[in-house]
């Protein structure tokens, strides 16, 4: 595949290594210094674009990919308040949009485990649920996209919780997410259930960015010949 990398930072560079090791070719690498090269004409040279930039620039980048008719895989977090607008634009242009708050296979298994545990804990209201996420100090958004995905799944299953907050919770119906920024940590997510007599926690800890990058390249391969809104559920169903 010919791949356009929109965002050539920590993730863009790791994705490049993995894509090349899987026989793909990088035909465009965009960062702030050459953002003027991000044109429809240049995007059309690629079979797929992989987008890992910033919360502020992601949506414009998706629109450009839809206009160019190039499938786009994105892992940028912090833009989800505009999700409806993006998905509508994708449908209108008959494009292909694959988004995941976390592309790691391990995290997606962890999402399943989180749902199962939450379903069980719904019946036991002596447990207060909360979360912690730890990331490197360069991260622009808090809480992490992954933490929001975990929280949304808990809110769907645990009926005594109806929202999440990164501030001090005002009531027990608010799920507290503590966002810690520390050194160069690639990403740690912990879901905790605490009662008066015991404590249960589940943790996913990324050892590097390689798992996120491999998932993004697998997603790009999955997009070939497909249209519409795609997610890790579609990809994992195919792999299982
Ligand atoms: N879904 C997932 O699995 C994962 C998601 N992420 C998310 O991916 C995003 C990127 O992370 P990371 O690679 O660590 O961040 P970096 O800051 O290392 O890289 C961001 C890149 O985007 C470029 N960029 C910024 N603004 C623009 C713009 N307007 N046009 C084009 N390029 C631009 C930057 O250019 P320059 O270097 O010149 O500033 C840089 O190359 C974040 O939102 C992060 O949360 C991260 C890991 C996994
Ligand atoms: O910014 C990061 O680094 C990461 N961002 C994603 C998120 O916000 O969940 C995924 C991963 O945790 C690393």
Describe the structure.
- The protein is an alpha/beta fold and 240 residues long.
- It folds into 2 domains: 2-103 and 210-239, Rossmann fold (3-Layer(aba) Sandwich); 105-205, Dihydrodipicolinate Reductase, domain 2 (2-Layer Sandwich).
- It has helices at residues 10-21, 40-43, 58-68, 83-92, 105-121, 145-157, 210-223, 232-239, and strands at 2-6, 25-30, 48-51, 72-74, 96-99, 128-135, 163-165, 174-181, 188-194, 199-205, 228-230.
- It has a 6-stranded parallel sheet, with helices on both faces.
- The longest helix is centred in the middle third of the chain and has 17 residues, at 105-121.
- The model has no long low-confidence stretch (mean pLDDT 97).
- Bound molecules: NADPH dihydro-nicotinamide-adenine-dinucleotide phosphate and the ligand O=C(O)C1=N[C@H](C(=O)O)C[C@H](O)C1.
- The ligand O=C(O)C1=N[C@H](C(=O)O)C[C@H](O)C1 binds at residues 77, 101-102, 135, 139, 144-146, 187.
Terminal CA distance reads: 23 Å
Which strand order does the major sheet show?
A: 2-1-3-4-5-11
What would CATH call the homologous superfamily of the largest domain? NAD(P)-binding Rossmann-like Domain
Cofactors and ligands: NADPH dihydro-nicotinamide-adenine-dinucleotide phosphate, ligand LZUJQKHR
The CATH architecture term of the largest domain is 3-Layer(aba) Sandwich
Helix content: 25-40%
Major sheet characteristics: 6 strands, parallel
Helix and strand sequence: EHEHEHEHEHEHEEEEHEH
Shape: elongated
Summed up, the helix count is: 8
Mean pLDDT: 97
Strand content: 15-25%
- Indicate the CATH topology of the largest domain: Rossmann fold
Total discrete domains:
2
Return Rg in Å: 19 Å
Low-confidence regions: none
CATH class of the largest domain: Alpha Beta
Structural class: alpha/beta
Strand segment tally:
11
